[in-house]
Amino acid sequence: MQPKRIIIFIAAILILIVSPKVFANQTKVKVLQSTESKIVLQVEFSEPQFTSVETPRGKAFVVSADKAYPILSEGMPDVPRVAESIIIPDLGTMEISVIDVDCRIIDNIEIAPSKGNILRTVNPEDVPYIYGEAYQIDKFFPEKNASLDTPYILRDYRGQVVAFYPVQYNPVTKQLRVNKTVKVTLVHSDIKGENELIRNNPTRVNSTFDQIYRNRFLNYENNERYTPVNEVGKLLIVSHSSYMEAIQPFVAWKKQIGIPTELVEWSTIGTTHDQLKAYVQNYYNTNGLTFLLLVGDGEQVPPITKNISGTSPSPAYCDPSYGHIVGNDAYAEVIVGRFSVETVQQLQNQIQKTIMYESQPDANADWYKKYTLIASAEGGGGQGDNGESDVAHSRVIKQKLLGYNYTSGDELFDGTQGQEDAPGNPTPQMVVDALNQGRGFMNYTGHGSETSLGSSGFSVSSMSGLSNNTQFPFMFDVACVNGRFVGRTCFAEGFMRASNANGPTGSLAICASSVNQSWAPPMAGQDEMVDLLVKSYQNNKKYTFGGIVVNGCMFMNDKYGTGGYSMTETWVIFGDPTVMVRTDTPQTLEVSHNNIIFLGTTEFEVECASENTRATLSVDGELIASANIVGGTATLTFSEPFNEPAMAKLTVTGYNKVPYIADIEVIPAEGPYISVESYNTESTDNVLIPYGQVSSIDVSFKNMGVEEAVNCIATISTENENVTLLNSTFEIGNVGANEIVTKHAAFDIEVVNNIPNMELVLINITITDNLNNIWTGKIKLNAAAPYIEVTSITFEEYHGNDNDQMDAGEIWKAIVTTKNNGEATSAEIETELSAMSDNFQIIEPLIHSGVIEPNEELTTVHTLILDGNIPAGNFITTFAISTSDQYTSNILTVSSPVGLIIEDFETEDFSSFNWQVPSSNAWQILTGADNAYEGNACMTSGTTANSQTKEITLNHKVSKRDMISFYRKVSSETNYDKLTFSINNVVKETWSGELDWAYVEFPVNVGDSLFTWKYTKDGSAASGQDKAWIDYIVLPSSATSTQNNVAPIFLTTPPGQVVEVMETKSFEYIIEGYDEDAEDTELIFTCVDKPDWLTLEQTEATKAVLSGTVAAEDVGKHDIVILQVSDTKTASTQYFFVRTIPYVGIEESLVVLSKMTIYPNPANNTVNISFESPGKKELVVELFSIDGAKKQTIFDGTSHGGTNNITANIDDLNPGLYFVRITLEGKTYTNKLIVK
Prior knowledge:
The protein is mainly beta. The protein folds into 8 domains: 4-206, Immunoglobulin-like, CATH 2.60.40.3800; 363-574, Rossmann fold, CATH 3.40.50.1460; 591-667, Immunoglobulin-like; 674-784, Sandwich (Immunoglobulin-like), CATH 2.60.40; 788-875, Immunoglobulin-like, CATH 2.60.40; 901-1036, Galactose-binding domain-like (Jelly Rolls), CATH 2.60.120.260; 1045-1141, Immunoglobulin-like; 1157-1235, Immunoglobulin-like, CATH 2.60.40.2550. The chain is built from 11 helices and 79 strands. Strands 1, 2, 3, 8, 12 and 13 form a 6-stranded mixed beta sheet that branches. A 6-stranded mixed beta sheet has the order 21-20-22-23-26-27, sandwiched between helices. Strands 54, 56, 57, 59, 62 and 64 form a 6-stranded antiparallel beta sheet that branches. A hairpin with a 2-residue loop joins strand 10 (152-154) and strand 11. Helix 2 (207-216) packs parallel to helix 10, helix 6 packs parallel to helix 9 (520-533) and helix 9 crosses helix 10 (545-560). The longest helix has 16 residues, at 344-359.
């Protein structure tokens, strides 16, 4: 067919420019034929529309059309494509041919070049139009009317995107071919193709993906290869070990509503993301899998990390990639979400709001159908998806919401946009106020940081004001790095973890990116998510949050190809991917059913008038059967009939419905049936049996049958080796039909003293009656024992320069907190603090501190003496462990830097370091605790004029590869007025918009470094406070730091680490120090720790004397710590202790009898005492402890002349220092004995 030719001028083209875009007719793609070997498609395009833009060549146009998306090929003509997916054969290649085209030509028109796929960190208006090589080539772009993208695999099917082009442009002839209809044929060939699908098992299409396929593939209805099955799909939960217990209620609830769920501990899989990926793939291949939920933050359960071309920063964190299993593409086989938590409480909060949202909706509330829309004022002018600005995009979404169930909401847009948007920019408090009033849905399109939304400034710190304790919105978030969750608490994590004293607040679920998002593709994905939410596609009733998000990503992939892939891989779902979202006030369900199930039954019927509902039967948290209600009924079929009585639970759920939950009793149809009704310990009325004790157990039995059971006897046993049953049988007696009989102290159980806390003790019970009926049951008890955990090591400055930072030569207190997380009181706690290096000393490393009640804690305080020559920037590492009899805690390791070089501006000037401050237009010191991140001062850029820059620099000599860190805050016009940080004139990062205080750090190499902070304004306008703030700069190690001076040394040592001094005797220690940095310096000596009977006197510039006289009340051990400080502000310490012993009748401290020997010495079992005696004399040999207490009389009798040998047994003595005293002829002789 010959194309029609139209000569058209710019004035005529302007008639076609419409904003916002309302297309005169719609684009339609039809399947004319679909078989295994041939597919015929026809597209009818809408009339194109033209947006006028200014380029270096003057006025030009950007073309758009209904259901068409820009190709985003930089430098090529900016024209769109219509992209649709089809199912193709598993193997081989599809070849496309155009068989019919109806088109016309527009002459003499200038089409602008595409700016490419721009990231949201860049303002599209700042990107110039660049004409590429295509504008020198005399041919149409695109060259063909239709083309094929690379095939992909979507779980059960192999798919391929067919791209149709509404227009084609020749830049040399300036002709635009406008296609009205295009008809194509796709023919299958056996040539090996890309992403071929190899099937190893029969395919079963579950209902979750059946809905996805109906929306995704044009020819799905024509494909009869597989029949969908009535299954929701399995959920695999991979949890960090810390959360295995806390996640159990969530697992039970998911099974209760019909989702087959399995929980696996991450440590049993491995430690790397490659191992987790392999595990998920194998699980998918062998068990079938639809949903994956990771439990723990990025450091606990790692995401897949990738360096993805065209994205930043690197690496990208790609949780969704765990679900991209078959084929080399970004189409999900498994839908992935994450409970990103760091504590059990954070997890419990997220579980609580998820279960509350699904199981206990408010049937009278209207907040479910209210929304909050937040957007920047940027984009548009042909940029962005559909050429829309963020505001226009959000208003399209608003109209879709109002056309569905939603009734009202908020427009929180930058600038003054009219309608419901208030003048000026939104604030964090506006967002908080809206959410506290109750909102069901939240949508954001704009700029973002790791911790905040660029528009409104709503951030992690703002979330403390939330009080939406029962009203949790779900959120679709298009923004940069709001989901960059590794190494920090990002915006999405903060929103999910938010809570107050009344419980969880914040969001139900959120999808947020771990990288800087691009402009157009995510907007298309967000559009699709909203379309699915409001049921724009009647065949795709996908109401789980994960299903909606993944569908949106697939749509984005179709329309933008690889430009969508990178966004899909990094758009992380925070929250439960299986959670069913709500968009309306919940309605109650009218359900009818029998209230009992007889033993041996294999089916149970449920009736309900509401469609799109599902009925599930479960017992004790285990899923028995589940089915969709179709035509008002569902038949639940059991894989095995019930063979014992039970209490089952029927749960019926549906979209925007209040769940129906009922108990169903499973009973026998005839005869007696005895079961264990309840049990508890006789003294505590619970099922906890204390460690190291004997407990009596009360057991109640119920006859669930229809006849009396006579002369019942119970026999019990257990395989648990940590307990002993003290009786194995007991009588129950007669139990009438429906009667409950309780046997008090039915049996006794003895528990060992080292059983793990909450260990399950399973008691098997067999019951017989006079008719030889046999019934079995189980009694589940849990051990109550201590669970000792060292929860923290904190440090407090004891003697130093009072800057709250560890410096060489200082003395600090290490405070170790030990908690008993068990169910029983501990024995006495012994806490030990140890060190990894010898550059500091721990005084009293081992401390006994008493018992701990359950859920209580205690602290021990250990003194740390830091060596005076620890290099600045080094770390001291301490290890703490606590024990309680047979129970041992974890080993907690904490490292703390020594000699940090800190600029915190508390001097209220720039005098502390080598700052280069301009004489004018300079940064300033701002005082006041409300202004600073910490302390009372920070630096700020202050007022900056338009088109001006304020810069401040710091010269610093770095002695080793290290980091510089600081806290920054910005309040500026987003993307126009910016704070920039550079090292040696290389920009490291730029910040703009409303950003609260946040920590940043950057690596620094050895050598001279120039650090530069710069605040730059554009030529017009301002936003926020229009300034930046910097505080608490930690500089890298520096060779010029005073903390690298050599500390003074002690030239003298104390007289032994243990000095025995008798009471009434004196002690003297002459101290001398030396400072090699300044030989003439004066050293200041201080006694940080000493007994009161000692005094320190400085006698010379580098000498002092420690002396004193012991009194009777001063017996014991006395720690002594001496600190010497030099003029160069360096210090060192010396530690020793003096042990004083009481007077025991010895004239001299040690008087040794002639030829008296004690061997072996040290000794541990027996000791031999040998001495010479002049003849037969009265002899007494005694043994005293160091504190003067007599431990034993070794001998009391008469000596013989010559050598006397006496043996003493010392098995029962503790290690330490003792004295052997011999009394011979009224004279006393003493010598030391060391017991080891």
